[in-house]
Structure formats: C-alpha cells, structure tokens
Amino acid sequence: MKMTFPLTRLSAAVGVSLSVVLASSWAFAQDADIPDLEGLWTNASLTNLQRPDGVDSLVVTPEEAALIVANTSIAGLPANEVDAPEASTPGTAPPAGSFDFGLRGYNDFWIDPGSNLALVKGEFRTSYIIDPENGQIPRLENPAVQIRRSFGARYVTGQGNADGPEALPLAERCFIGFGNTAGPGMMGTLYNSTYQFVQTDDYVVILVEMNHDARIIPLYNNAEEARANERPEELNQWFGDSRGWYEDGWLVVETVNINPQQMAESSVPITPDGKITERFMRYSDSEIVYQFTVDDANLYSQPWTAELSYHATEGPMYEYACHEGNYALPGILAGARRAEAEAATNQ
User: In whole angstroms, what is the distance from residue 267 CA to residue 8 CA?
Assistant: First the structure.
C-alpha cells in the first residue's frame, strides 16, 4: 500500500482538489495498456540535454560516469569551485558584474541537482538526447524564424534591461519554473526536481515542485480523438495545449500552441508550426521511463528525441512559494528607477 493524492474532479474553473487516500501500488493493473504513474517521483541528475564535448557514447560504465560527474559544471561553476568560499568580503554584497554576483547567487546549501548521471533502465546516460546518435540538438544553421531569448549574461552579471517587469525572464517573475521543469520536455534543474503524478479516468495531472506548476492533461480514447479536440490558437497557455491517450502501455501526450513567451525562453523551443510529443511508461516499481520528441522543421533539421527516467521518492513535496514574498522584482525595478534619477541629476 502507498499514499496517493488523487484528483477528485476538475471544476469548470479548472480547480484541483487533492485528497489523501489509500490505494494499491498498481491502481491501473487491470488494464495492461494503461501504466500506473501515480505517486511522487524525481528526475534529478547531473546529465544535461546535450552530450558534453569529448564524450562519444550515450551509455557509460559506473566508473566512467563517476569521472564525468567529477568534472561536471554545476550552476555555471566548475565542479572544484562549487564549495569554494566567495571572493567578496563576508557580509557585503559583491559588485554587479563580478564573478560572485550571479554564479554564486545560490550558496551550496540550496543546490540539489542530483549526484549522479541520469540512470535510465539501469544504464548511466551522458545526455538526455538519444536521437540523433551524437547527442546534439540538430539546429538549423540559419533558421527562418528566430525565437530564442537568452538571459545568461543577466544571470551572471546582474546587469540587464529593467525598463519594466516584462523585461525580466518569466521564471524571475514567478510565472513558470526555470530550467524546463514543467516542460513540455520536462527536465530536472538546480533543485526542487520532484513531481507528483495523479491519474483519473479523464485526466492526468503532473504537479511540479519547481514553482508549483501544474499540467492538467485531458485524456482521450486515441490519437485521432485527442487531435480533434485541440483548443483554439488564441489560448496560448503556459505549457501549451496538451492532450493525451494510452497506447501500448505508454501514456502519450501531444502538445501544440505553447505560449510564445515561454517558448522564447525554453530549452526546447518550437514555433507555432511545431509540436512536442511526450511518452511515459512504467518500467518498474520504482522507475518511469520518459521520452519527448521535438518536431519543428522551422528550427531543426530533423525531429529529435530525449529520454530520461523518473525515480520513486518518498518526498515530501514542498510548496514552492515564489510570488509570495517575491521582493526581487520590485527591488530590481526600484533600483533601476533610482539609478536613472541619479544619472539625470548628475547630468
């Protein structure tokens, strides 16, 4: 027996009510075509979406995996500097643009990205991407559409446009979690890589610890029925229009029409012509194998597929309070206005 948190019903306002009940560990075992995905899971690992330079093989031995982990950068810091003391004077803020300012925005206490490479079906993996075989995103050299918006320099230096709240990245504004935690194309990140899966006859809900995002996925009898129930294009929801069905022991989820603002900052961007197809399969009592395929001829030379696993965890799963008490945004904007006023005074 295990504790699960089933969804009682979705109201017209898309309200979610969670209650605690006891259920068997294989609630859907009576139908071999429907995998039981319920429970608490984590996809934390030190594997990245793309394969690192100098590594040719997707699968490595435990010894090779340990060597890669020892040389893996965490939060932009070399592995041997994660625990190093800050260069700035204790008790004082580092100057904007300095090494400490962005890269050490989190001290080691908060960092929990995992301690091993991704373990998938008993194999240590060097990249999430399994197709193409080289483990690299097959980006077009000169795509007709440019949608990427990078905030890397802002993260490192603390310097960037602060004309208004819209100039800041979505995660910093608490709209969605950073690092593609909720996907589509769900991957672990620097911390809070816990997920709760809830299944009913009509929906699958994936609650994501990072920024308390919830994906509510309606279920249909087959792919044709799911695609026939696509939402209007005007509804550019966070995480897109996802519709699912069961197929040969997999939950298949197809997503289109993702909010363009989200796609501009996503690790797996697509244009309005593209789609992302996710597949979930219960591999064992303690593992869900998860694949996602990105298909968009406007950005990529071919469809590409990533694969990783979710491993059972006992939790607990904490509330991620981001909007609540988010003093960073008003502080950034107030500081920018103060700097502008001082500059105007000194002219």
Answer: 33
pLDDT 10s digits, 77-119: 665 555 555 555 666 666 666 655 666 656 666 778 888 999 9
Q: Record the tokens describing residue 341, joined without a space.
A: 């006023």
Residue 145: name the closest of 294, 298, 264, 295 by CA: 298
Instruction: Say if residue 299 is exposed, middle or buried (CB neighbours under 10 Å; 0-12, 13-18, 19+).
Output: buried
Beta bridge partner(s), residue 196: 40, 207
What are the φ and ψ backbone dihedral angles of 324, each rounded to 5 degrees? -70, 115
- The answer, yes or no, to whether the previous bond of 113 is cis (omega within 30 of 0) is no
Question: What SS3 class is residue 67?
Answer: helix
- Report residue 306 as tokens: 């990533």
In this structure, are residues 106 and 75 in contact, taking their beta carbons and an 8 Å threshold?
yes
Determine how many CB atoms are found less than 10 A away from the CB of residue 172.
Answer: 18
Report yes or no: 18 and 198 within 8 Å, Cβ to Cβ.
yes
Cα 24 from chain centroid? 29
Q: How far is CA 242 from CA 98, 231, 245, 253, in A?
A: 42, 9, 10, 6
Task: Give start and end residues of each alpha helix (H) in the chain.
Answer: 62-70, 99-103, 152-157, 223-228, 260-264, 328-345
Give domain limits for the chain: 2-74+111-345
Cα angle value 212/243/275 (rounded, 5°):
90
Q: Please give the Cα distance from 122 to 217 (Å, whole number).
A: 29
Check if the beta carbon of residue 232 is closer than 8 Å to that of residue 213. Answer: no
Quick one: tokens of 297?
């001829």
**Per-residue model confidence as pLDDT tens digits over 11-60:** 333 333 333 333 333 344 446 789 999 999 999 999 999 999 999 999 99
